[in-house]
Design goal:
Elements lengths: L1 E3 L5 E3 L21 E4 L15 H14 L3 E5 L5 H10 L8 E7 L11 H8 L4 E7 L2 H6 L5 H17 L3 E7 L1 H7 L1 H14 L3 E6 L6 H14 L3 E6 L6 H10 L4 E4 L13 H11 L7 H5 L1 H11 L17 E2 L2 H9 L17 E2 L7 H8 L11 H15 L8 H13 L6 E11 L5 E10 L5 E8 L2 H13 L10 E9 L10 E8 L4 E8 L2 H28 L2
Parallel strand pairs: 3-4, 3-10, 4-5, 5-6, 6-7, 7-8, 8-9, 9-10, 11-12
Antiparallel strand pairs: 1-2, 13-14, 14-15, 16-17, 17-18
Helix pairs in contact: 1-2, 1-12, 5-7, 6-7, 8-9, 9-10, 13-14, 15-16, 16-18, 17-18
Length: 559
């Protein structure tokens, strides 16, 4: 007998089936959990995400080193780019990962041996393939326009055809949890069809991303009680439950987890492997990656953001810059005494670092934590610490924000503690913006700087805009004395209006990110004049490059 549950579906005894159960072929050693990455297929369906073939190959190398078992490369029957990708991927020498093509059960209008989608999967030469089929009776009748019984035949026949052609088949039960809620007996019957065809792993999908954790748990437990195959989870994040549903699925017995890095995917995205992997390993104690592999997860996450040409989500658990960033004075004072007071894991375990943010909420304890490595011989009562604390409070009152401009903070600290003398001093600058009769705009900047030994440079430059012109003129002046600045490039520029009530006369904060190709850093400037604020941030940016080069050279000398 089947018993009804009030909120979800039907659970209970074995379901009558025309399909015999298959012995499992898919095994996971030592109760480990295997991870299946679909960033390159499901993730690329996210708004604003597109990977070139070269991008995909780079990501596969990174995920292989990370220890991901399966990497879904794409849908070879859908577009020429994925066809090219699978041709090139054949030659990759991978250590741990298997590249998997993705497709569907056969189309109702084809037989298995004439279906172009199944043929494309075989043509890739991959030894493991993934296909999805319909678990929800609604999709079978209203989308495929077949009867419920015909849908079962599509599933069983497609899986069997691929298995008979020497492939391991991972079966994705699309919309399984919605189908289970609608008709539990039929949803499980579709899994029996896949098992009868010889599928090695049954992946239960929350395709619409709307199911809650206890519903996921119930579905996993029922399927495990009904079928003797490895069971996996494929969750979406439309209700914000993607990672939670995936972790709870593992707690319920799933040994295969699908997801994407950084949660990329359609609509609200997929379950985020950058959160799920550390949680399963560190919280559930299921050893899935080596210590060194887990320490690489932050860098892999950032690499994928870069190749997706998207800003890295710094508020991501585990892998975001803010994940272990502390701002409040009470918090930072506590972690100075014991970092476990406000950190749930050691950041270095996942390749991240602890960050202490300096702000108007910071106390002297925060400042001490921030500078203790560089200045270990000082305490909260040291005159330099008191001066730095005072300067920070005054600066933030004026609109400066150092938590996102650590290079400017480091320069300020060095000046107070070491009487640091700048490499150059600005004498003045002028920026002219002209508009001509054809409505073309031209910007020209003139700057004058001096060095500590009395040398002066006076230069001018054109630019696409006033800040670009100013940047170019400063470079022309400073590179005469410091050729190392030729490597510095501005890679991000942000302007924040601090007091909207003041309208066009309000203060603005300019945040600049620069890089020399090896490291990047951020600096800040504040003024009622956007050009002045930009100039301040640019000067700090150049100054920081020279400062760190000298610091590095000095450290090498004393080695």
């Amino acid at each position: 007998m089947l018993k009804e549950t009030p909120n979800f579906g039907v659970v209970g005894a074995k379901l009558a089936s025309p399909y015999s159960e298959q012995k499992p072929k898919h095994t996971v050693k030592n109760n480990m959990v295997e991870f299946y990455d679909t960033t390159l297929r499901d993730g690329s369906q996210a708004e604003g995400v597109a990977f070139s073939v070269e991008d995909k190959l780079i990501i596969i190398e990174a995920l292989d080193k990370l220890g991901v078992r399966y990497i879904e490369g794409g849908y070879p029957g859908s577009n020429p780019k994925d066809i090219e990708f699978f041709k090139r991927a054949k030659d990759m020498a991978l250590e741990t990962a298997t590249i998997v093509p993705f497709g569907s059960t056969r189309y109702p209008t084809y037989t298995t041996d004439t279906d172009p989608n199944l043929a494309a999967l075989l043509d890739t030469g991959a030894r493991t393939v993934t296909i999805f089929g319909k678990s929800w009776r609604l999709h079978a009748t209203d989308v495929l326009r077949v009867t419920a019984e015909e849908n079962l035949e599509l599933i069983e026949g497609s899986v069997r055809y691929l298995v008979e052609n020497g492939r391991e088949v991972i079966y994705d039960a699309e919309h399984f949890f919605d189908g289970y809620a609608d008709d539990a007996a039929y949803a499980v019957e579709t899994l029996r069809a896949a098992a009868a065809g010889g599928a090695s792993c049954l992946v239960l999908c929350d395709t619409n991303g709307g199911r809650l954790p206890l519903e996921i748990q119930e579905g996993i437990e029922v399927v495990l009680s009904e079928l003797s195959l490895a069971v996996g989870i494929h969750a979406h994040n439309d209700a914000g439950m993607g990672a939670a549903n995936s972790v709870l699925a593992v707690q319920a017995g799933a040994t295969h987890v699908q997801g994407t890095f950084n949660g990329y995917g359609e609509r609200c995205g997929n379950a985020n492997l950058a959160s799920i992997i550390p949680t399963i390993q560190l919280k559930l104690g299921r050893e899935c990656l080596s210590e060194m592999q887990l320490q690489a997860i932050t860098s892999v996450s950032r690499l994928i953001s870069e190749l997706a040409n998207l800003p890295h989500d710094e508020r991501q658990p585990y892998v975001g810059r803010s994940a272990f960033a502390h701002k409040g004075g009470l918090h930072t004072d506590a972690i100075r005494k014991n970092r476990l007071t406000y950190e749930h894991i050691v950041p270095e375990t996942v390749g991240n670092t602890q960050r202490i943010l300096v702000s108007d909420q910071a106390g002297r304890g925060t400042i001490m934590k921030k500078i203790e490595k560089e200045y270990p011989d000082y305490d909260k009562s040291s005159p330099q610490v008191l001066e730095l604390f005072k300067r920070l409070k005054e600066a933030e009152q004026d609109g400066y924000q150092y938590e996102a401009a650590e290079a400017s903070f480091e320069l300020l600290t060095h000046k107070i503690f070491n009487g640091y003398e700048s490499f150059f001093e600005p004498v003045g600058f002028r920026v002219i913006v002209e508009q001509f009769t054809d409505f073309a705009m031209r910007s020209e900047a003139t700057v004058k700087v001096t060095t500590p030994d009395g040398l002066t440079a006076h230069t001018a430059a054109d630019g696409d805009g006033p800040v670009n012109a100013l940047d170019t003129a400063l470079r022309k002046a400073l590179e005469q004395f410091y050729p190392a600045l030729q490597t510095v490039r501005l890679i991000d520029y942000k302007v924040r209006v601090l007091d909207t009530k003041a309208g066009t006369g309000s203060k603005v904060r300019v945040l600049i990110e620069a890089s020399d190709g090896e490291q990047s850093w951020r600096t800040v400037g504040v003024s009622e004049n956007i050009i002045s604020a930009s100039c301040e941030a640019l000067l700090d940016s150049f100054e920081y490059k020279l400062y760190t080069d000298k610091k590095f050279a000095t450290s090498q000398t004393f080695k």
